[in-house]
């Protein structure tokens, strides 16, 4: 039992745990103050009742030590009683609501059970007050019931807010840790198996699963990639972060064992089909993600604002090769496409557009449809291009060389 003098007015300031009065309300009645002091005198008994009930909560049984539960019950009940009775609040009670919310986060107590435990205070305190009030003062106590509810709600709101704030802080810390681990993996060669395992644990994915790797470098493309990741199916687990000056997407393939959905490589996920980005080869496990990323980054460097969907190395081999030819690029461009420089701009553009369409489709009819002209017109343009460059357009090897030369020329102009 506690001596009631311990809970007297003394010289402690009349303040609440947050530094401001919880509500602007009339002072507590003498009858209410009397019963509050009686409850404070029997605080150990109230703590025993409280811990006996809350200790049975599933979320508390394995995570909250008994002494912790008793200590927080003692301070919380004292705080509530002082708020109800307008009694002074010692400094030691300031901030205990927020401390309780933060501590329960680290003890993995579910929020629902925490709030249930906190709101148990109302029933416990009201019952204790009814037991200690003389019958003739019961009407006065009943009128003070709202003060009990207000005090408990005041405490509950602060516990709840602190719990959510601490949860957000921990989530940001985990996100920073996750991003740091993934960043280390992306910058590596994928040979550190311990790092690979750590990334798998941080992302909560199987390190041996198959992954899609995509990169966007231009602002509009980065925005589209982030939006697609946000809207991706939950099963895809789309992780996005900034790396090497670009936005990198790492997503699970829906059929981890099916790495080649189509000849030449796997098709992009359906939710990524209309997103302008560079797509690396499917990574068979986290250890191969860095290699897939290098390919995607190389492709991404060749993309511009006209890109409308995912581009693979297979699609962008010519501009990628042109970018890597160095001083040999201008030599090849001059040798194969130099004669085109003397043509009027509109004619040169028409010939090159027809050729690139034909190289992409392999069909005169499809090229004619794409260029909105007769197939004979396509043939005439291709023949004209062959005369000027000396390349046989129907020869795959020579056509590929001319494509590369045109991209080298474009690279030199840039």
Automatic annotation (TrEMBL):
<protein>
    <submittedName>
        <fullName>DNA-binding PucR family transcriptional regulator</fullName>
    </submittedName>
</protein>
<dbReference type="InterPro" id="IPR051448">
    <property type="entry name" value="CdaR-like_regulators"/>
</dbReference>
<dbReference type="InterPro" id="IPR025736">
    <property type="entry name" value="PucR_C-HTH_dom"/>
</dbReference>
<dbReference type="GO" id="GO:0003677">
    <property type="term" value="F:DNA binding"/>
</dbReference>
<feature type="domain" description="RsbT co-antagonist protein RsbRD N-terminal">
    <location>
        <begin position="43"/>
        <end position="178"/>
    </location>
</feature>
<feature type="region of interest" description="Disordered">
    <location>
        <begin position="1"/>
        <end position="25"/>
    </location>
</feature>
<dbReference type="InterPro" id="IPR025751">
    <property type="entry name" value="RsbRD_N_dom"/>
</dbReference>
<dbReference type="Pfam" id="PF13556">
    <property type="entry name" value="HTH_30"/>
</dbReference>
<keyword id="KW-0238">DNA-binding</keyword>
<dbReference type="InterPro" id="IPR042070">
    <property type="entry name" value="PucR_C-HTH_sf"/>
</dbReference>
<dbReference type="Pfam" id="PF14361">
    <property type="entry name" value="RsbRD_N"/>
</dbReference>
<feature type="domain" description="PucR C-terminal helix-turn-helix">
    <location>
        <begin position="351"/>
        <end position="407"/>
    </location>
</feature>
């Amino acid at each position: 039992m506690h001596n009631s003098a311990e809970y007297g007015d003394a010289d402690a300031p009349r303040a609440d745990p947050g530094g401001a009065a919880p509500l602007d309300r009339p002072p507590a009645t003498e009858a209410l103050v009397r019963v509050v002091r009686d409850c404070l005198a029997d605080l150990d008994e109230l703590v025993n009742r409280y811990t006996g009930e809350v200790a049975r909560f599933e979320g508390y049984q394995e995570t909250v030590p008994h002494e912790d539960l008793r200590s927080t019950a003692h301070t919380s009940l004292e705080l509530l009683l002082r708020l109800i009775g307008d009694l002074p609040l010692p400094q030691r009670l300031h901030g205990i609501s927020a401390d309780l919310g933060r501590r329960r986060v680290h003890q993995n107590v579910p929020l629902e059970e925490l709030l249930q435990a906190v709101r148990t205070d109302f029933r416990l305190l009201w019952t204790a007050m009814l037991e200690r009030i003389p019958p003739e003062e019961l009407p006065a106590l009943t009128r003070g019931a709202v003060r009990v509810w207000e005090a408990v709600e005041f405490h509950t709101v602060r516990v709840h807010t602190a719990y959510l704030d601490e949860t957000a802080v921990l989530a940001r810390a985990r996100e920073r840790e996750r991003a740091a681990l993934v960043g280390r993996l992306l910058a590596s060669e994928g040979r550190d198996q311990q790092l690979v395992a750590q990334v798998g644990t941080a992302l909560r994915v199987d390190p041996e699963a198959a992954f899609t790797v995509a990169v966007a470098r231009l602002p509009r493309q980065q925005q589209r990639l982030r939006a697609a990741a946000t809207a991706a199916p939950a099963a895809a687990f789309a992780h996005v972060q900034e790396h090497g000056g670009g936005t990198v997407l790492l997503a699970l393939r829906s059929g981890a064992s099916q790495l080649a959905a189509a000849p030449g490589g796997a098709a992009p996920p359906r939710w990524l089909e209309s997103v302008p980005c560079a797509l690396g080869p499917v990574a068979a496990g986290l250890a191969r993600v860095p290699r897939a990323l290098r390919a995607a980054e190389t492709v991404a460097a060749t993309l511009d604002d006209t890109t409308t969907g995912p581009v693979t190395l297979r699609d962008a081999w010519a501009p990628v090769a042109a970018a890597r030819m160095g001083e040999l690029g201008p030599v090849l461009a001059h040798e194969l496409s130099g004669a085109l420089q003397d043509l009027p701009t509109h004619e040169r553009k028409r010939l090159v557009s027809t050729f690139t369409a034909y190289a992409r489709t392999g069909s005169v009819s499809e090229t004619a449809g794409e260029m909105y002209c007769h197939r004979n017109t396509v043939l005439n343009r291709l023949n004209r291009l062959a005369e000027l460059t000396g390349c046989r357009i129907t020869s795959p090897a020579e056509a590929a060389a001319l494509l590369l030369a045109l991209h080298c020329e474009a690279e030199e102009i840039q």
